[in-house]
Amino acid sequence: MKEPTVALRGSTLGDAIGTSWFLRDVDGVRTVGHGGSANGQFAELLTVPEPSLAVVAVSNSSPDGIPFNQEVVRWALETYLGVVDREPEILPYDEKRALEVVGRYETNAQTLAIRTNESGLTLEVGIKPEIRAVADKELPPDYPPEHIGFLAGRKDEYLITSGGLKGQRGFFTRDESGGVVAVDLAGRLFKRSQGK
Question: What does the pLDDT look like over 152-181, one tens digit per residue?
């Protein structure tokens, strides 16, 4: 369970092992974890096999449940193990690179829009209207535009730096010609639905 079997670039928790565990080195310590969310419910599990520690954070606070859970995990790592989970370095805004990823992306249930205002990138994600129309209960609100930045030393990987999705990592997928065709967010692949 300590060696990756499937590479999953850019996940907030790390690289995938099998189909459900994520490996990540934090301050020189190997961690194994998994997280998830559904309709305003957020959960995160992080274990440190050596030395032995497990942290579970669960919240039903939308839109700030994800950042809350991440802070609980960071606090536990530092308090009990002296392990500091540092913020990754974000590259300065690069307009040419930003324009490569600007566009609309979607899954069967959600839409994702990436925009630039010539000084930064934003990511906005929401539930498709047709999904809301057939839901038998009220679904959580869409996330407003949140700032994102490219990670230093990690090709086509990004970090959300503000709002309710703050701390989530993802990556862009390119086709053989180098064009961006999809974006990963929280392990979900959103395919590009229209031009830049």
Answer: 998 899 999 998 888 888 999 999 999 999
Q: Is 124 helix (H, G, I), strand (E, B) or coil?
A: strand
Tokens of 70: 């991440």
Rounded Cα distance between 143 and 164, Å, is 7
CATH topology of domain 95-192: Lipocalin (2.40.128)
| Alpha-carbon 14 to chain mean position | 10
As a whole number of angstroms, the distance between CA 6 and CA 11 comes to 12
As a whole number of angstroms, the distance between CA 185 and CA 164 comes to 13
pTM flag (> 0.85): no
Residue extents of the structural domains in the chain: 15-81, 95-192
Whether 167 and 66 have beta carbons less than 8 Å apart is answered as: yes
Task: Give DSSP secondary structure letters for 19-88.
Answer: TTEEEEEETTEEEEEEEEEETTEEEEEEEETTTTEEEEEEE--TTTHHHHHHHHHHHHIIIII----PPP
